[in-house]
Write a structure and sequence with these properties.
The protein is mainly alpha-helical and 173 residues long. It has 7 helices and 2 strands; from the N terminus they run H-H-H-H-H-E-E-H-H. The radius of gyration is 17 Å and the shape is globular.
């Protein structure tokens, strides 16, 4: 079971990791962002839009709203700058949302439907864990693509984030 502290940690970690990733991607030659590569999502922009769409779908499931998406592969933001702004807004929403959660709210089971129409039930906390885990999976996929360029990928590991925030907390003010 996820608790509020863990939800906050993972929301803040996801925000940080996505910032690291988008900053690194903005430093690549622009043609690398849309260069077609093997796989179902074809390029960096496709992968990042997929992550954003999934975030929107699960946000809607958590809020018990219709999300309106028909595909996980939609390209809502074809440019890195627009996509970055949208993802930053989404990540900020999840951070604020996490700070409002309680043990009870995270344990609440909700009905939802996958895009296939199949019904499902998950707790709010596990829905959010899926959001965080899904983004981590795709950051790993993107890291692999960096080696094909070749370019050094950003380091977005949880342990790096935890070390950075721990060191920042101990700095004199």
């Amino acid at each position: 079971m996820i608790n509020p502290s863990t939800a906050i940690l993972f929301a803040q970690y996801k925000r940080w990791a996505d910032q690291m990733l988008f900053t690194s991607l903005s430093e690549l030659p622009s043609e690398e962002l849309t260069k077609e590569r093997p796989g179902p999502l074809k390029n960096f922009i496709g992968i990042l839009n997929h992550v954003y769409v999934i975030d929107r779908i699960w946000q809607a499931n958590i809020l018990q709203h219709a999300h309106g998406h028909k595909s996980r592969m939609e390209i809502l933001h074809p440019t890195l700058a627009d996509l970055r702004r949208a993802q930053e807004d989404m990540n900020e929403w999840f951070v604020c949302w996490a700070k409002q959660q309680t043990d009870d709210s995270l344990a609440r089971a909700l009905d939802f439907h996958f895009l296939s129409g199949q019904a499902g039930v998950m707790t709010v906390g596990t829905m959010f864990l899926h959001v965080a885990n899904h983004a981590t999976f795709h950051r790993g996929w993107i890291t692999q693509l960096y080696f094909e360029i070749p370019a050094p990928p950003p380091v977005t590991d949880l342990c790096v984030y935890l070390t950075e925030i721990s060191c920042a907390a101990t700095l004199p003010t």
